[in-house]
Amino acid sequence: MNTLKNTISILLFVLGIQFGNSQNILVNEGYTPQDLVEDVLINSTCANVFNVSVSGGNFATGEKSFGYFDGTGTTFPFQNGIILSTGKINNAPGPNSFLSDDGGNMGWDGDSDLNDALGLSNSFNATILEFDFIPLGNKISFDYIFSSEQYLSNPSSGQCNFTDGFAFLLKRNGDLRYENLAVIPGTTTPVKVNTVRGPGTICPPANAAYFDAFNDVNHPTNYNGQTTVLTAQSDVIPGQTYHIKLVIADEGNFRYDSAIFLGGGSFNFTIDIGDDRLVANGNPLCQGENLVVNSTQTGATGYQWFQNNIAIPGATNATYNITSAGDYLVEINYGATCQTTGTIKIEYADVLIIDEDTFTLCDVDNNQDGKTVFNLDTIKNELFTNLPTNYVVSFFEIATSTTALPSSYTNTIAYNQTIYARVMNVQGCYTDFPVNLVINTFDDVITDEELGLCENEPITLNAGTGFSSYTWNTTPPQTTQTITVDAAGTYVVTLTNANNCSKTKTFTVTASGIATIENIDINDFQENNTATIEISSTSLGDYEYSLDGVNYQDSNVFTNLNAGEYTVYVQDKKGCGIVFETFYILDFPKYFTPNGDGYNDTWFIKNLDKRNLENSIITVFDRYGKLLKQISGVSEGWNGTFNGNLLPGSDYWFEIKLTNGKSVKGHFTLKR
């Protein structure tokens, strides 16, 4: 880095026309310590400063590490002020063309107070400006910039923690410990290279809002980077004696010089006349509220109040009654040439404009009891048109309650309830705002339906009457009470009533059709005769079965059937039609009574011809296996005789050889 900066320095010397002194700060070592404090830093006839001292590097050349700087005509933020450095201030003016790296091997010590303030043990090359002062006001402040060669734009990872230290140490006479005023605003963190650094290097950024820039060559100072203008400030007690010690030092070794620039005339004594009353701070004045501000100071000879930098006619008392928003300043005079100031900024809470205070929801659960869940966060965002972002709105069930409602709130009074919105973090400027919660219901009972779509027969879906609107999930959406469909599917209609509440009704439409009876599987000549109705696999419907056309069952099996003729009815449950078919159950008589009365005089098997079994052979035997009679399926049967003789009442046996290959054996009774 030294080689690069020296090369650039030679080039800039050759091209000096382009970079004249007007672009860079100037330094002056001729000011006395008293002049630096009274005429440069404070620059006010109000200054009551004494015991001023400065110490720094004891260079053999007689050069100094402190003095005056002039930034007039440059881009440097300060026009002039004091510079305190860990090296020669003659190396501080720009351009940023070489490494300022002074103070080695000359016995230049650090500072124990700085070590205590920053927790160090190895400071070197300390430059110190200190003095006593008696403040007029109750607050002091001054502006400064911290610059350092250690702000490297391309550091190695090992250089990220190198940092010089400085502190602005203040204590009241008699106090034992100093307070460090050189801290990051709102914190107690000291300002250093590794606590204020911008992004763009391998070193992590820190509090980047307070970092100004990494400098290129063309900069008014010969430092690699600097902070923004920062303000050191503290409360003080007017009339008390304070000691301030401004100190900067290298940490670890003498390498890579740093400097503090103190803004000329920035050391101010001001009066704290109260906190700003701002909307952003949550403490504005309420509409119509006045605020009396008191700036009374011992020894003051006169006062003048200003609003927005305009003198207020007649406002020459120590107190002033503020009645409108603005930036207020009071000038406090101590004789003809000494003056301090106090400032306060006043804002008024807005008159809140209600955008909507009635919120309506539908009861969405099944019991329709007029209670539902409200999102109070949503209501909060819709309640006012001009609610500042930092205001907090909470809701309460009654105006006197102190327990805020949860964000998800279920009303406790059915159908209509008033709750209260309370604007928090404002000085009691607002009364509670009533908010009306309205809950509408949808009382109609909606039942889903399942329907069949018969072949080649479109079906009409009817959502019912009495609703204000209908929206079907068709493409495009249809909005009529009825729609006609010709395809199976799930059809959903959203029904909206007069209260603008909605429910949905679902129509499940399945393809269906009239049945085709493919076979009737009969199992007869049994103790439990059955018939199983077999439907063609091409039939689409869901079917039910009946033997009388009135009473239907889901099962396709009929049991415990007596011998005889039956008609089975197969009905599509979706209404696509009914088919029927006749079948016969065969069985043998368990007895017969051949007494000539014309009733049950012969034993025979009915309806064999109806099953195409008329050619079956039936053989009758006595109990000893003697063949008594052989008849066909269409004969008149056996009359209970053998060779013309009446056989006695008894059990007789038979075998039926059916033409379908089935054989049935059993016995029956002849009764005389």
Report the portion of residues in β strands: 35-45%
Give the CA-CA distance, first to last residue. 140 Å
Number of domains: 6
What would you call the structural class? mainly beta
Q: How would you sum up the major sheet? A: 13 strands, mixed
Helix tally equals 4
Whole-angstrom Rg: 55 Å
Protein name: Gliding motility-associated-like protein
Pfam families: CHU_C
Organism: Flavobacterium cheniae
Structural write-up:
This protein has four helices and 45 strands. It is mainly beta. It folds into six domains: 2-269, no CATH class; 273-346, Immunoglobulins (Immunoglobulin-like, Sandwich); 358-440; 449-512, Immunoglobulin-like (Sandwich); 517-585, Immunoglobulin-like (Sandwich), CATH 2.60.40; 591-670, Immunoglobulin-like. The strands form eleven sheets. Strands 1, 3, 4, 6, 9, 10, 11, 13, 14, 16, 17, 19 and 20 form a 13-stranded mixed beta sheet that branches. Strand 40 and strand 41 (627-632) form a beta hairpin. The longest helix is centred in the N-terminal third of the chain and has 13 residues, at 2-14. Mean pLDDT is 91; it is low at 1-21.
Task: Give a brief description.
By secondary structure, the protein is mainly beta. The chain folds into 6 domains: 2-269, no CATH class; 273-346, Sandwich (Immunoglobulin-like), CATH 2.60.40.10; 358-440; 449-512, Immunoglobulins (Immunoglobulin-like, Sandwich); 517-585, Immunoglobulin-like; 591-670, Immunoglobulin-like (Sandwich). The strands form 11 sheets. Strands 1, 3, 4, 6, 9, 10, 11, 13, 14, 16, 17, 19 and 20 form a 13-stranded mixed sheet that branches.
